[in-house]
Specification:
Elements: H1 5-28, E1 42-43, E2 46-47, H2 50-67, H3 72-95, H4 110-128, H5 131-136
Antiparallel strand pairs: 1-2
Helix pairs in contact: 1-2, 1-3, 2-3, 3-4
Length: about 140
Amino acid sequence: MFRSRAHAFALVGGITYILIGIVGFFVTGLGIGDFVSNTDDRLLVFDLNPFHNFVHIGAGALLVGASRFEEPGVTDGVTIGVGLILIVAALLGYTGALDHLLSIDGKLAADNFLHLITGVLAVVVGATDNPRVASSAPPV
């Protein structure tokens, strides 16, 4: 069904992020006046604002788009890139730099841990996914 682990990760992860972004708008509304404000809006334990929802949809769209490429290297690269962005977002969140922009409240907010875990997973999947090496190996 999937050409590689990165293709599977990109499609499933991308759809998940898009759905989270869409559901987030049911919590925050479009919030034109509060677009990048630090709000009290939450989806389960995760902080949200409209900008944060758009970021989720954008990251998800990048991953879904990458899952459609035949060439595994493109999918691997985009998966690693999105993963690195998520890791940087987590690190900035731990410093408190994203409190206002993404409405992530506090250094130990659940969002920071989720971004870090998802980012590391994306980087690992993208970096270790090499179907050509696996397919050229002699049968065991």
